[in-house]
Amino acid sequence: METPAPSPPWQPITFGGVAAFSRASLGRLFLIQFIVALLAGASVHCFLLSAWFPVIQKTIARLPETGAIRAGQLEWHGPSPSWLAEGTFLSIVVDPAGGSRTGQSADVQLELERNGFRICSLLGCAVVPYPKNWSIALNRAEADPWWGAWRPFLLIGIGAGVVTGMMASWLALATLYSVPLRLIAFYSDRKVNWSGCWRIAVAAQWPGALLMSGAIFLYGLNRLNFVGFLFAWLLHLVVGWIYIGIAPTRLPRLAGAPRRRGNPFGEKKGKRFRG
Fold first, then answer.
1. Residues 6+ apart with CB under 8 A from 102
2. Residue 146 and residue 153 in contact, taking contact as beta carbons nearer than 8 Å
3. Is 50 helix (H, G, I), strand (E, B) or coil?
């Protein structure tokens, strides 16, 4: 009995559809990969527009008349600590002295200190020093027109970075994942070569990416909390590993490969009946 043919290559969210990419052309593989990465970039784009960019706009509106970051130092003449903007997803605080217990109500908090900025979330805090060679305006007169002019380009740049980064990471991880996938295919007597295994490894990451894109979209709409978002991030990795393990079993079996019989006792009983 022959193994049923895999699902068509345009069904990348099924195990058979992922397995079918072992025979797909590189053009089709990269086209579907680009579409999936584009959906991920669009979800990040929507999240920024609905969650972070409004907070940044409020922050700029509350900046004092003077202020800047020069030579790696914060020049601040307003009250300290000062809450510039606060939301569910992002809050921005200026604390030149550092060490003030401002608390945290947003999922991510940005604290501007004297020599660098601190990013805090449920995962902890990270301190990043200011660039020594940069001069960044922290006053309404300069920051507002700069933000208005560069906001569209920031959106485009971040979206392009997400698409490019995801495609590059999928190709790199596919090289790593193709090794266990090749072993699974070999020991299950499936008809596929190394190139086919690499193509399957690329496609196996798309269902998890689609899951993560949906999680980003729901998180931006406040339909998913930060803990749920982190869980979705872990789950999207596990989904890829599941597809790596199951997709090879949807490949055609090698001709002449031994097959395990289902119930040897039932088979003997059938032979006795026919005799």
1. 81, 83, 93, 95, 109, 111
2. no
3. helix
**Which tokens in the block code for residue 50?**
């609905």
**264 by DSSP, 3-state: which?**
helix
Whole-number Å distance between alpha carbons of 275 and 268: 11
Candidates 235, 40, 224, 230; CA nearest to 121 is 230
Kind plus residue range of the DSSP H or E element containing 129: strand 124-129
Residues 6+ apart with CB under 8 A from 80: 94, 95, 96, 97, 100
Domain assignments of the chain as residue spans, ordered by start: 15-47+152-258, 64-137
Q: Distance between CA atoms of 237 and 205, rounded to whole angstroms?
A: 8
Whose tokens are 């991030």? That residue is: 233
In tens, the pLDDT along 147-189 reads 999 999 999 999 999 999 999 999 999 999 999 999 999 998 9
Alpha helices (runs of H) in 48-122, residue ranges in sequence order: 53-61
H or E segment and range at residue 117: strand 116-121
Spell out the alpha helix ranges (H) of the chain. Answer: 15-20, 26-47, 53-61, 140-187, 194-203, 206-220, 226-246, 264-274
What's the rounded Cα separation, in Å, for the pair 87 and 108? 9
The predicted pLDDT at position 274 comes to: 43
> Does the CA dihedral 228-232-233-234 come out positive or negative?
positive
69, containing H or E segment: strand 67-70
The pLDDT of residue 100 is 64
> H or E stretch including 91?
strand 90-94
Where is pLDDT greater, at 98 or 148? 148
251-262 in b/e form (b: 16+ CB < 10 A) is: bbbeeeeeeeee
pTM score: 0.82
